[in-house]
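Q: Given only this backbone (204 positions), what sequence would you predict?
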């Protein structure tokens, strides 16, 4: 029996009779790379053990859980919003765009979405924001893992495409090595030009 202090299916059960998906994002804060989102409709009878907020799991644990989630879920989807979309729309609206793409990628249309955070994004179904949702809802926790692993994988690919910045290590987040690389090389094509530190390097 699962401990009720960690993520569980209580929120999903409260929407009895509805097909519920959990939705979460990864990559709102970095200086470089896209923002990603995951959407997951769990099968209550086949929920992988060890699901939790992706930030509380090791990289190895997330990598192990990703295929388990995809194999056991009734449906899953991952969506991205590009650096260009982040700069054009702002990070909040780009996050909503990535979430919509993740929900639209589900092979089953959900009747309701549980979304991590306090913002009611416009999605293809009714939304309930859940503050700290990745630590409360197993569906949101699963979505957070898919979003994080997908984005991290992409940033490793970007490290090969744009060497010297260390994207495989810091994944585009603020780090001393990232600052040093930016100072030495200038921004790459995947840096968020609307971010203040990047604007400063570009002279305003």
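A: Predicted residues:
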């Amino acid at each position: 029996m699962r401990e009720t202090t960690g993520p569980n299916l209580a929120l999903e059960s409260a929407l009895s009779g509805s097909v519920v998906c959990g939705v979460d994002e990864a990559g709102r804060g970095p200086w470089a790379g896209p923002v990603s989102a995951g959407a997951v409709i769990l099968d209550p009878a086949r929920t992988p053990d060890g699901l939790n907020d992706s930030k509380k799991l090791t990289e190895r644990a997330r990598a192990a859980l990703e295929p388990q989630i995809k194999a056991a879920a009734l449906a899953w989807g991952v969506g991205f919003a590009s650096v260009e979309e982040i700069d054009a729309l702002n990070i909040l609206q780009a996050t909503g765009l990535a979430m919509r793409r993740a929900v639209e990628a589900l092979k089953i249309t959900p009747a309701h979405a549980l979304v991590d955070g306090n913002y009611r994004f416009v999605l293809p179904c009714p939304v309930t924001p859940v503050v700290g949702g990745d630590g409360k809802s197993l569906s949101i926790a699963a979505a957070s893992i898919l979003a994080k692993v997908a984005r991290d994988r992409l940033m490793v690919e970007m490290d090969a495409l744009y060497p010297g910045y260390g994207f495989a290590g810091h994944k585009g987040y603020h780090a001393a090595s990232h600052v040093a690389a930016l100072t030495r090389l200038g921004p790459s094509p995947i840096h968020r030009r609307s971010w203040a530190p990047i604007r400063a390097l570009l002279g305003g």
